[in-house]
What does this fold into?
Amino acid sequence: MNICWKQVGSVGCGIWLFLLITLPAGCAGRDRLGSDGLPVIRVRLAADANQVAIGTSRPTLTVASTAAGARKLALVEGQPAAITFTGNGWQIGSVNVPGDDLTVTPDVDGTININGEFYRGKFRLVPTSPTSFDVVNHVDAESYLLGVLARELLRDWNEEAYKAQAIVARTYALYEARTQGPGKHWDVHPDTRSQVYGGVKAETGKATEAVDATRGIVAAAGASGSEKIFKAYFSACCGGVGQSAYDAFGDAYSPVLSERNVGGLCNISPKHNWAPVTIDKPELTRRIRSWGEARNHPIAGIQAVDRIDVESVNRFGRPVRFIVSDVSGQRYSLGSEETRWACNADRKGGPQLLSSYFKPVNQPAEIVFTEGHGHGHGVGMCQWCAEAMARRGIPAEEIVRISYPKSVLVKAY
Ligand SMILES: [Zn+2]
It folds into this structure.
């Protein structure tokens, strides 16, 4: 930076100084914008926004709209411009750009920030009403994974766990892009509703190595010779017994996403066992009604909750359905994850259930969720199991195959 000050002088140096401060390690020298031929993942960074701030660490960026074509736009470094949609055009700072569909492209990959966060790839802004719009990051699958991996795993984890996660996250994202994307303008959320995506700031050297070492590799399943990628669910900790996607989410039953008994494999996780969680019945009633109302589910009409009981368990003893009964004797049967979501809904910072792997104990005024195991839904790869296997010397490819029974690994590109 000192050299910069001496050589470039005040104005230029202001730019370069900003660059040096804001570009993260690992970004320099990597320009992934021209990653032609790779599948693109469309991440819905902002939904129905009325305004977002856009900034760049370069003097210009390119905006293109349906009505006005492409043009260079100068932005002052460190001073983001507000973007709004007015119904017949876009306002970007003081510049008006007619048209209803806007694409923003950086001069150099990874140098545009949206609301302060830098992302690789391009951005498409799509109106969702006369005054609101979505911001969708179009990023190639490999660059996308750079921003996912370190957000999904702990920094000190084994590199084989990172590689396994790269394969699984790639599979998941490509599956979602292929099955959820058609007919709409985005594929995935940037958070736990899909996978946690932190953009450029989230990238680490370990994550980048894992993505590059597994480039294009995905898990697939099905009849030999015609295997296809699948929705490669994963979660933090299975608690010793995972559940199938069929039991957890009502998906079609598939051996690749079946329940598994791993014993104590992931007991290195601090969430392998969790302490009893107590929620009083009026609070549970409020939460469950709130969840039902948001989903238009009949349980929205439940009277005061009286008790919760296990309705059925999978072949390894993990509960997969619960009955919620109210004081009138009305019974509602919920799937395992539905039960967890309902009990955690609108909790306003109150106690939460980390998983649906628990035993409810009904007391007069409250329900105690005991014998809790695991964190997350427990379908597919357990990240703590993956880390435990990696520490035992099991390579990433084998970790993935164990996590998804009968799966094979193939190169998607
Ligand atoms: Zn596990």
User: Anything to note?
Assistant: Residues 237-238, 262, 265-266, 382, 384-385 surround zinc ion (CB under 6 Å). The radius of gyration is 24 Å.
